[in-house]
Amino acid sequence: MNRYTIEHHVMVILGGGPAGLTAAIYAARAHLNPLVIRGPNPGGQLIQTSTVENYPGFANGVLGPALMEQFEIQASRFGTEMRYGVATQVNFSNHPLELLIDDAYVLQSDAVVIATGASPQWLGLDNEQRLVGRGVSTCAICDGAFFKDQLVAVIGGGDAALENALSLTRFSSHVYVIHRRNQLRASKEMQKLAFQHEKISVVWNTRVMDIVGEDNVKALILEEVNTEASSCLLIQGVFIAIGHRPNTEIFRPWLQMDEQGYILTQPDSTHTSVAGVFACGDARDKIYRQAITAAGTGCMAALDAERWLQKAGLIR
């Protein structure tokens, strides 16, 4: 990385979602002058969310983009610097830590907070992204209440799919679980709960070929895997639950991760396997994946980083 222009910072935060911006708020208030590299999707997954009704402090709900705008304003108020950009390479072999941004310049940082989040896996259908927030979702906990007394479908066959389905039964009139195989991957206990629920029906050996709707989801076009017979399922909402992928690939040579790529942290902390590197939000959380939990670990990362910097003698 020697051929690039080099800047030095006390703290660099990778990611501009709830975790990264909360870390920035705490770090800025501690006078660490953090630099946030906002990543390819500033605001994280909330940018694709319509009304957020489960974030504390907004009794009447708040639009996802508006919530993230408030995060940014608050972080900037305390002196956070924000830049558009993506970390394309890192070198965690020595201190200060090095980050190559946009293949254009190098940031040297005493501490790095990784808040790069995770991306939901999609079916790859033409109408899928167009109808996000208008009937297409990846989070039943977030959006289930919008489908009260409506017909909905969940796509997937793992624990996440059945958790979504069971959550939706509290609101929707009926939930179809659509799975392309003849058996589910979910745990036996989850399957038992789903099979026993009167509001859940499993549609076996079926793949989704299209999502129908102009302004809102109206139906799914389905295909039976074995016979290739087509059918139309009338619904008002579809929840894609075929997994998430943490945005952590560039850190794989340097940090300990689980087999899915989620960054492992030390117990009761955000410390990673490399000193001075901290992980928060969905880059390390495959269980809760909520804005409020991401923000909470962002706070933890900033506090952990500040204490580490003090102990290392890098700040007073």
From TrEMBL:
Gene3D superfamilies noted in UniProt: FAD/NAD(P)-binding domain
Top EC class, one word: oxidoreductase
Record-level GO BP terms: removal of superoxide radicals
Catalytic activity: [thioredoxin]-dithiol + NADP(+) = [thioredoxin]-disulfide + NADPH + H(+)
Cofactor, free-text remark: Binds 1 FAD per subunit.
Occurrences of domain FAD/NAD(P)-binding (ranges): 11-298
Enzyme Commission code: 1.8.1.9
Record carries keyword Nucleotide-binding: no
A GO CC annotation given for this chain: cytoplasm
Cofactor(s), by name: FAD
Pfam families from the UniProt entry: Pyr_redox_2 (PF07992)
GO molecular function: thioredoxin-disulfide reductase (NADPH) activity
Key words of the record: Disulfide bond, FAD, Flavoprotein, NADP, Oxidoreductase, Redox-active center
Assembly with partners or alone: Homodimer.
Family note: Belongs to the class-II pyridine nucleotide-disulfide oxidoreductase family.
Protein name: Thioredoxin reductase
Organism: Oscillatoriales cyanobacterium SpSt-418
